Every structure is written in C-alpha cells, then in structure tokens.
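Technical note accompanying the year-one report. For the benefit of new consortium partners, we illustrate the data format agreed upon in the data management plan: each record pairs a sequence with a structure-token string. No post-processing was applied to the example shown here.
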Amino acid sequence: MGLSKILLAGTTIAALASIGVAHAQAPQNGVCPGIGTLGSATDCNVEIFYGAGGSVSTINPNVTPYDGSDDNLVGIINNSGAPITTLTFTGSSFAGGLFAFDGDGLQTYGVGLGSDPTGYGGKTSLGQFTTFTGINASETTGTVVFGASGIPNGGTAYFSLEGPPSAFVRTPEPATLAIMGVGLLGLGLVSRRRKNG
C-alpha cells in the first residue's frame, strides 16, 4: 500500500472518529445537587453526555427551572476517553441571555456547591470549581472552564445558567488538532503529487 493510500485511510478514520453518533441516554442521578424546585432530586435540568468517538447526546430530565423561573442546572458526563477542559455554550436572549446572571445561581442554594464571583459556577467530580469566561456583549454565548484539570474521563461536572443552552461546542484537544493537521497535510501532498504526476 502506498504512502498516499495510508495517509488517505488515516485521515478518513480520524474524520469519522471526530464525527461520532448520538445515543439515547438515561438520566444519571448524582451528577447535580438537588436544589430549588429540584428538591431532593439529584438529576439536572439538562444533561450532556460525551461518549467515545466524539458522540454527544443531550437529555432534559427536569424541565422545571430550579429557581421556578428560568435558571437551569447543567450536568456534563464525560466518557469520551479524554479530559474536557472547556465548553462554549450559546442560548437565547430570553431573560437577558444565557449568561445574564441575575444573582440566583446554584450557589444561593447552599454552601460548598461552587465558588465563583457570579454564583453560578459548580464543581467537577475532582472537586475543582467551574468558572465562566469569554461572555459576549449580548450575554448569549460564553465558555465554561472546568477547573485546572478539566472533567476527567469517567467524570462529571455541574453548573447553572440562565436557561437551557441551545448549542455547545467542545474545543478540540491538542492531540486531535495534530491528527487532523497531519491528515490534511497528507491530503495536500497526495493532491500535489497527482497534479504534478
């Protein structure tokens, strides 16, 4: 098998692995603390599952906002095979915007649930605090940072937002970017070789 075929095969495999497939999930009790209208329930308003090969699925176990108005408790379950360090979320401008924090975040419901200036940050399963950065001017998009170590494979995290997110993006890890770069370089070399040959 020639170098060009090996590179093409490797690029195809890497691309397919990064696409992933969503699977139906059941609520994972114990990811989020029971607060507000969630009472003693231990599942979140929104749960986002990251699986092997880049698969992502989302469920809404509790549709009633924990503050009785608009705030949502979000849980992340990471079974992707690698840590998740940040996620960028987007939502509607309802209630001022997903990141228009108005003082009734999850930290108002108990001591030790999180520790950030907004009052909306939570924790990872390693006990590190989640924080927020990169919030846009309309407060509809922002990034959640999962402590210094991120959410480990097999781990979880929770935090709160001013409503359910409508979209979220995981920043590719450096190793994934390197693999994709090598694949694209290989495709470029194959194309150039064909053009010159």
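Partners are asked to follow this layout when depositing records. Residues 3-23, 174-180 have pLDDT under 50 and may be disordered.
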